[in-house]
Amino acid sequence: MLPLIFTLITLPYAPNALEPVISQETIEYHYGKHLQTYVDNLNKLVAGTEFESMPLEQIVAKSQGGIFNNAGQILNHNLYFLQFSPVAADNHKPQGAILEAINRDFGSFDAFKAEFEQKGTTLFGSGWVWLSADKDGKLVITQETNANNPVTKGLKPLLTMDVWEHAYYIDYRNRRAAHLQSLWQIINWDEINRRYTE
Ligand code: MN
Q: What is the CA(99)–ligand 1 centre distance, in A?
């Protein structure tokens, strides 16, 4: 089998399209430098190993150490960057199956957002807060440290906020809570619903 070459995802929007929530400068560093570095590192680390022809989710489930850290961060950032649309888009409120599940499992969209922000704000150090679905379609919010992803718990990841400082320090400095609160303005709920129902 030929080795897989991991590549940087293409963003479905221009680098300035998420302003003022996420600046072009943050995209240039976070996507253009941090994510590119994880991709370059993983390609170097997997060469000649059993992981070089595995999809990312499988690497994350089976690896440890540097390979796990870089594969996990690529999987996390791919899901993160592909879940956004510009502020002016009309898909920033959940609809359909995902809205029904949010109302069922959290009581309301506002109650869900409050719990999600609280779990993102209180995660100590670097990591990610996730909305995922279990095998029965029930929604759960989890905190994952460093490069971890809910796939390692058997969950299907749907939506995430990156609470590593590199995600918000250029635009928000130390104000993590303000950054998380602003991200709702650019979440593409059509994409989250697609992930939930696929
Ligand atoms: Mn990041």
A: 27
182 C-alpha vs ligand 1 centroid, how far in Å?
A: 16
Dist CA 142 CA 44 (whole Å): 31
Structure tokens, 122: 């209180």
**Mean per-residue pLDDT for 108-117?**
98
The label of the residue with tokens 């506002």 reads 110
Q: CA-CA distance, 2 to 101, in Å (whole number)?
A: 41
Q: Tens digits of per-residue pLDDT, 78-100?
A: 999 999 999 999 999 999 999 99
CA–CA dist 20, 74 (Å, integer): 25
Query: H-type helices in the chain, by residue range?
Result: 24-29, 36-46, 56-62, 65-81, 96-106, 109-121, 169-172, 176-183, 189-197
Cα of 24 vs centre of ligand 1, distance in Å, is: 15
What mean pLDDT do residues 150-173 have?
97
> Could you tell me which of 76, 59, 77, 57 has the C-alpha nearest to residue 67?
59
The alpha carbon of 92 and the centre of ligand 1 are apart by a number of angstroms equal to: 22
Per-residue DSSP letters for 54-68?
S-HHHHHHH--HHHH
Quote the CA–CA distance of 128 and 161 in Å, as a whole number.
6
pLDDT tens, residue by residue, 13-42: 999 999 999 999 999 999 999 999 999 999
Distance CA 23, CA 27 (A): 6
